[in-house]
Amino acid sequence: MENKRFYITTPIYYPSDKLHIGHTYCTVAADAMARYKRMTGYEVMFLTGTDEHGQKIENRAKEAGVTPKEFLDNIVCGEKGVLDLWKLMNVSNDRFIRTTDDYHCAAIQKIFRKMYEKGDIYKGSYKGKYCTPCESFWTESQLVNGKCPDCGREVKDAEEEAYFFRLSKYADRVRHLLEDTDFLQPRTRVNEMVNNFIKPGLEDLCVSRTSFDWGIPVDFDPGHVVYVWVDALFNYMTALGYMNDKYDDLEKFWPADVHFVGKEIVRFHSIIWPAMLMSMELPLPKHVYGHGWLVIDGGKMSKSKGNVVDPYALAEMFGVDALRFFLLRTFPFGTDGNFSNELLINTINIDLANKLGNLVSRTTGMVEKYFGGTLPTKREDDKLDCELKHAARALRDRYEAEMEKFQFQNALAEIFQVIDRANKYIDETAPWVLGKDETKRARLATVLYNLLETIRICTTALTPFMPETCDKIFAKIGACQLCRTWDKANVWGSLRADVTVQKGENLFPRIDSDQALRELEAMQEAQKKAALPAVEVEPLDTESVDFDTFCKNDLRAVKIKNCESVKKSDKLLKFTLDDGSGTDRIILSGIRKFYEPADLIGKTAVAIVNLPPRKMMGQLSCGMLISAVHKEKGEEKLHLLLVDDSIPAGAKLC
Ligand code: MSP
Fold first, then answer.
1. Contact 264 CB / ligand 1 (< 6 Å)
2. Cα of 259 to ligand 1 centre, how many Å?
3. Structure letter (DSSP) for residue 280
4. Distance between CA 589 and CA 267 in Å, rounded?
5. What is the largest CA-CA distance in the chain?
6. What residue owns the CA closest to ligand 1's atom 25?
7. I need a labelling partner for 510 at 20 to 30 A (CA). Which of 231, 284, 304, 431 fits?
8. How far is residue 593 from each of residues 515, 537, 600, 633, measured CA to CA in Å?
9. Ligand 1 contact via 54 beta carbon (within 6 Å)
10. If we measure between CA atoms, which residue out of 528, 517, 468, 85 comes closest to residue 343?
């Protein structure tokens, strides 16, 4: 008998920052898959979670002035944290693992020890690039312009004692797995792995560190913590109860049916993970699927660029189901997809408002208009109906074939072909014409019934993508619980002949594209600004000036006797100054937008007094007042340099 169990995972997310739409992408895909499998009769285990150890978390917590655990609890369980996001996105995970959970930590220590005792983990030394202020090791490829990716400072070569996993030992077996089986999907990722990593020769993998503390201690060698991949990858098994008593589902669900992972971590999942499982003599997962990224203008979303897209904001504006749908309808799962606001709005308007929404509201509206909401049972078929019926009946198989290959975009395209067909059928049968003719009532009822049946079948297939909306559609078209099932998704005629519908509200009102774009742009602009460094000062001048030249600047303390705006100038202030010489000095300064003139009168400032006089707006300015300038969130700030009022006018600064 077929084993009707399905185990699917997402990567466990690294919660050093809030999650963005890119993270949401994979989780929503996994959720659609899990819901689809449940619908088709599988017992499903859908796991997601957070990967909570490492240097970066330790650093972030330090910056925030809290312990790593406090930092994590806030970003994982706090308001608008990871758990909140999955709840908002209607993610139906069965389990959530945090790698700081006690059962996981204890299991990882056992796994590490077992591999060590087997001789697959050994002690060596790790060489890398070290950033002293961040106390972090980096690999050459992680550096940005040769500098620390976190703080931008110089790094130096350094070495520390570390444990290594004998990855090289498993190279041949892993190569066979990649090349000769369908373990890694899509197939295009196989060449990438073999050519870039296996052929050049697999190096053993560093699996412990001594340079930071925030990790699972190696219990037989205090001072070492387990480093990243042993800790992170085994989550897929500890969450089922491997090497712990917390859960007892290993037999039932291992090996996993599929791990969904982003393209940059395919290497860890398709090379290192099977090698570690081989070392532990455990069964391998059936598939790893490496999906593409959501990119913006062809580039990566990143906090520092200020272009990360916030799923909360989008869900609030457009609704959770519309967002879920957009992510999986627009981009092929296996390759990168270019995210844009226009694309999001167009997809919602075209597919959801015009095609699906319209079909449902027109059909239910006509049942209400012509039959008071309940169809009569008398029928009159026409050969015009065959094509629609055939398309709707065939949908289940076509859709299933795509879903089984994780081709969500294609599965949705299949559904929309049927929806398009149904909309065309409305034009072909012109129910509004039939409605005018009393003798055509049986024919009109048949047309509307056929449309309702088509909607029902499409809605079943759409349910994993838009669960809440589909519930609403089922209710609108009067589908009983049985009619909503997968088993009935290829059975024509499941709705009662005298079905009662309720048109109700529009499912997807058309979005005013210009207005929504303006709102999104304003929001994203504000976000970009917020991502700018709080305070930005000009880099120090590297060109030196000789001392004698510098001394030629005659800097004096000056008392501000008067200050007023210069007529017809929105920039200039006119200062009348006492420079100790007995004659007033006039200086014009372009700082009007920063000060109210009256606020400066009586203050002591600093001026260079030996600059040649210069005419500005028809007035002579004799010197220059000194100010300090910087930027705050990208905005220019200026502070007129004011000094202690006890300093007499004319005192020389040296
Ligand atoms: N903690 C590791 C995974 C360990 S799994 C045993 C990790 N975490 S992560 O938070 O940095 O990334 C998690 C997933 O989010 C990765 O699969 C990554 O590809 C995905 N994404 C991050 N940004 C993304 C996009 N812009 N688009 C699509 N997915 C992206 O890696």
1. yes
2. 12
3. T
4. 60
5. 110
6. 22
7. 431
8. 32, 19, 13, 17
9. no
10. 517
Q: Tell me, using a 6 A CB cutoff, whether residue 327 lines ligand 1.
A: no
CA distance 29 to 464: 9
Helix %, strand %, coil % of the chain (to 5): 45, 20, 35
Q: d(Cα 150, Cα 134) in Å, to the nearest integer?
A: 8
- Give, to the nearest 10 degrees, the angle between helix 358-371 and helix 408-429: 30
* Ligand 1 geometric centre to CA of 25 (Å): 10
Helix/strand/coil for 270 = helix
Residue found under tokens 């008071």: 372
pLDDT in tens, 402-448: 999 999 999 999 999 999 999 999 999 999 999 999 999 999 999 99
Tens digits of per-residue pLDDT, 112-127?
Answer: 999 999 999 999 998 8
Ligand 1: nearest atom to the Cα of 50 = 1
The reply to whether ligand 1 has any atom less than 6 angstroms from the CB of 456 is no
Q: Which residue has its alpha carbon closest to ligand 1 atom 30?
A: 22
14 Cβ closer than 6 Å to some ligand 1 atom = yes
Determine the distance separating the centroid of ligand 1 and the alpha carbon of 293, expressed in angstroms: 9
Residue owning tokens 């707006």: 617
pLDDT of residue 2: 64
C-beta 237 within 6 A of ligand 1: no
Cα 52 to middle of ligand 1, angstroms: 13
The residue nearest atom 24 of ligand 1, judged by CA position, is 22
Q: Distance, CA 77 to ligand 1 centroid (Å)?
A: 19
The number of the ligand 1 atom at minimal distance from the alpha carbon of 233 is 6
Fill in the DSSP letter of residue 33: H
- Residue with the smallest CA separation from ligand 1 atom 23 is 22
Distance of CA 92 to the CA centre of its chain: 18
Sequence letter at residue 348? I
Using only C-alpha atoms, what is the Rg of the chain? 34
Question: Can you give the pTM of this predicted structure?
Answer: 0.83
H-run or E-run covering 119: none
28 lines ligand 1 (CB under 6 A): no
Return the DSSP state at 204.
P
Strands (E), 120-175: 121-131, 136-138, 156-165
Alpha helical stretches, state H, 300-384: 311-318, 320-330, 341-347, 358-371
Identify the helix (H) or strand (E) that includes residue 246: none
The confidence band for 498, taking pLDDT boundaries of 50, 70 and 90, is very high
Angle at 577 between CA 576 and CA 581, to 5 degrees: 130
Q: Give the Cβ contact number of residue 119 at 10 Å.
A: 10
Q: Report residue 41 as tokens.
A: 């009769």
Burial class of residue 102 (count of CB atoms within 10 Å of its CB; 0-12, 13-18, 19+): exposed
- Omega before 186 within 30 of 0, i.e. cis: yes
> How much distance in Å is there from the Cα of 272 to the middle of ligand 1?
17
Overall average pLDDT of the 389-409 stretch? 98
The pLDDT tens digits of the residues spanning 616-651 come to 998 999 999 999 998 877 788 999 999 999 999 999
